[in-house]
């Protein structure tokens, strides 16, 4: 856990000043981040993630932390989000949750578009993500 938290601490200030590195580090240490999610797809309006069935679906707004496709120890984007729908029986182990992004800026739109390209590569690996609870 320490290695992952230190990598989040190294994340630069591209998050528009809404969360600081200290906030992310303390959230990780005090268990406010569920990091067992997998990004299923993404668009400028939202995405879908796969969440283990034993984890609760967020009921209010939250921050979605998308890890880098190249290095799952570094945060790529942190997006204000809200769960819109869920498929509780997507697989035996995971539910699929539809997420709407809130307050997307041009900078975040560019980060999302960079991730969209990743889904078009045939030999893609899974992109990990996490939910930062309020």
Blueprint (SSEs and pairs):
Blueprint (H helix, E strand, L loop, with lengths): L1 H8 L11 H9 L3 E10 L3 E7 L9 E6 L7 E13 L6 E8 L4 H13 L8 E6 L2
Antiparallel strand pairs: 1-2, 1-6, 2-5, 3-4, 3-6, 4-5
Helix pairs in contact: 1-2
Describe the structure in your own words.
The chain is α+β, with helices and mostly antiparallel strands and 134 residues long. The chain is built from three helices and six strands, in the order ααβββββαβ. It has a six-stranded antiparallel β-barrel with strand order 1-2-5-4-3-6. α1 packs antiparallel against α2. The N terminus is likely disordered.
CATH architecture identity: Beta Barrel
Shape: globular
- How far is the N terminus from the C terminus? 21 Å
* Percent range of helical residues: 10-25%
User: CATH topology, which one?
Assistant: Thrombin, subunit H
Mean pLDDT: 78
- Number of helices, counting only DSSP H or I runs of 4 residues or more: 3
Query: Quick one: CATH class?
Result: Mainly Beta
What Rg do the Cα atoms give? 14 Å
Total number of domains: 1
Query: Assembly type of the shown chains?
Result: single chain
Beta-strand residue fraction: 35-45%
CATH superfamily: predicted glycosyltransferase like domains
Strand order of the largest sheet: 1-2-5-4-3-6
Poorly predicted ranges: 1-22, 24-31
Which structural class do you get from the secondary structure elements?
alpha+beta
Count every beta strand, where a strand is a DSSP E run of 2 or more residues.
6
Largest sheet geometry: 6 strands, antiparallel, barrel
Order of helices and strands: HHEEEEEHE
């Amino acid at each position: 856990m320490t290695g992952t938290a230190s990598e989040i601490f190294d994340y630069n200030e591209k998050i528009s000043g809404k969360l600081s590195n200290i906030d992310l580090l303390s959230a990780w240490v005090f268990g406010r981040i569920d990091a067992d999610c997998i990004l299923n797809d993404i668009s400028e309006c939202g995405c879908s993630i796969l969440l283990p069935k034993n984890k609760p679906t967020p009921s209010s707004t939250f921050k979605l932390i998308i890890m880098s496709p190249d290095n799952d120890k570094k945060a790529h984007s942190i997006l204000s989000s809200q769960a819109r729908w869920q498929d509780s029986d997507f697989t035996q182990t995971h539910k699929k949750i539809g997420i709407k992004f809130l307050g997307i800026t041009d900078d975040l739109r560019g980060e999302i578009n960079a991730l969209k390209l990743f889904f078009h590569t045939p030999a893609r690996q899974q992109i990990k993500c996490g939910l930062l609870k309020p």
